[in-house]
């Protein structure tokens, strides 16, 4: 056999130098998009999206990266102005295609209105500890989310008529969560101080007939309010009324609740609630023996491991707070 007919020798693996010289900017866009999809907003805007021109172009032009934006915990890591700017950038890059937005602490009336004016396709909105969102600001913004199917308002300052407002603006709501931190002393004085309030319950009953899941942790509703919800929300399958201590589970109410597949009652454990640590910390800070005895089971279940959800955050370098890192994409 002649040398010309011999098969070519196998290619040698790339050397370390060749590997280091690889041009990551030439990475196929579909593969790069798959990598970006695993990053959160901060990781893209402050890191991957700044690596090179090609990566920056993808981060700025691919709206699929911004369909589900979860900015929970970001308010604890960055300055308010910075995290607001990031949220606006995410909304702009979504180009009207965003379907879910979640945030803690930093959302205010102005930012919520900004989102509602640009994201009519939103189906899921999660707000926690956003005390700068007022009833008026919420009422103005919620009308911009006609396709909303899931609304979570946890430990915010919204109350009263907001339920009716949300129900009328979002006729497709299937999941609604309105969670509050029950004042323990209400348990003793509610019968005498008028601390029962069915305003929110009646708002839900009158405007949310399509609800399938309802969570009202720490609400002040009474048996009458709960009865109204059960009568007017026939599709309800999941109901969570933990820490709703104005509710008295009499025979009539038990009969009404029998059809609910997933039912959590006022005195059931709060250990699986995502934000239980905020409840426990507020109880500990009050300091009365009555309150601590009442919640011994909560204090026992919240361990360091249980709080991992609150501590599992990426460490950011001090330079993150430098507004100049955002470049031209952020107006802060």
What structural class results from the helix and strand content? alpha/beta
Shape: elongated
- The averaged pLDDT comes out at 77
CATH top-level class of the largest domain: Alpha Beta
Biggest pleated sheet: 8 strands, parallel
What is the number of domains?
2
- How many helices in DSSP terms? 17
How much of the sequence lies in strands comes to 5-15%
What is the fourth-level CATH superfamily of the largest domain? Ribonuclease Inhibitor
The low-pLDDT segments are: 184-192, 286-332
Distance between the termini: 73 Å
Region (Disordered): 1-22
Pfam family, one: F-box-like
Protein name: F-box domain-containing protein
Domain F-box: 21-69
Structure notes:
It comes from Sorghum bicolor (Sorghum). Residues 21-69 form the F-box domain. Residues 1-13 have a biased composition (Pro residues). InterPro entries: F-box-like_dom_sf, F-box_dom, Leu-rich_rpt_Cys-con_subtyp, LRR_dom_sf. Residues 1-22 are annotated as: Disordered. This protein is α/β, with parallel strands linked by helices. The protein folds into two domains: 28-62, no CATH class; 66-285, Ribonuclease Inhibitor (Leucine-rich repeat, LRR (right-handed beta-alpha superhelix), Alpha-Beta Horseshoe), CATH 3.80.10.10. Helix content is 40%, strand content 10%. The chain is built from 17 helices and eight strands. It has helices at 16-20, 29-36, 41-46, 53-61, 74-77, 80-94, 109-118, 135-142, 162-169, 186-193, 199-207, 223-232, 251-257, 276-286, 289-294, 296-301, 308-311, and strands spanning 68-71, 100-104, 124-128, 150-154, 175-179, 213-215, 238-240, 262-264. The protein has an eight-stranded parallel sheet. Helix 7 (109-118) runs parallel beside helix 8. The radius of gyration is 25 Å and the shape is elongated. Residues 184-192 and 286-332 have low confidence and may be disordered.
């Amino acid at each position: 056999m002649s040398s010309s007919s011999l098969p070519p020798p196998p290619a040698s693996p790339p050397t370390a130098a060749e590997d280091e010289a690889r041009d990551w900017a030439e990475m196929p866009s579909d593969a790069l998009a798959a990598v970006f999809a695993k990053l959160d907003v901060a990781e893209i805007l402050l890191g991957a999206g700044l690596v090179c021109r090609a990566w920056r172009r993808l981060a700025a032009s691919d709206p699929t990266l911004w369909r589900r934006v979860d900015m929970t915990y970001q308010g604890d890591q960055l300055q308010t102005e910075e995290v607001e700017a990031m949220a606006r950038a995410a909304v702009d890059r979504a180009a009207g295609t965003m379907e879910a937005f979640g945030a803690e602490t930093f959302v205010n009336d102005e930012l919520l209105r900004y989102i509602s004016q640009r994201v009519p396709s939103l189906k899921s909105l999660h707000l926690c500890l956003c005390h700068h969102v007022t009833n008026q600001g919420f009422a103005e913004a919620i009308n911009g989310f006609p396709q909303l199917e899931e609304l979570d308002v946890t430990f915010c300052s919204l109350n009263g008529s907001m339920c009716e407002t949300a129900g009328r603006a979002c006729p497709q709501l299937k999941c609604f969560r309105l969670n509050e931190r029950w004042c323990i002393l209400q348990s003793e004085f509610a019968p005498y101080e008028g601390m029962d309030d069915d305003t929110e319950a009646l708002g839900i009953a009158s405007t949310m007939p399509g609800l399938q899941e309802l969570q009202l942790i720490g609400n002040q509703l009474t048996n009458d309010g709960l009865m109204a919800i059960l009568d007017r929300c026939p599709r309800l399958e999941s109901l969570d009324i933990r820490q709703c201590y104005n509710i008295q589970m009499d025979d009539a109410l038990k009969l009404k609740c029998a059809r609910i597949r997933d039912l959590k009652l006022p005195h059931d454990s709060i250990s699986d609630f995502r934000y239980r640590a905020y409840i426990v910390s507020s109880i500990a800070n009050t300091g009365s023996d009555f309150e601590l005895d009442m919640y011994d089971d909560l204090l026992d279940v919240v361990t360091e491991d249980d709080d991992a959800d609150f501590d599992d955050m990426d460490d950011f370098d001090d330079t993150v707070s430098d507004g100049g890192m955002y470049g031209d994409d952020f107006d802060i």
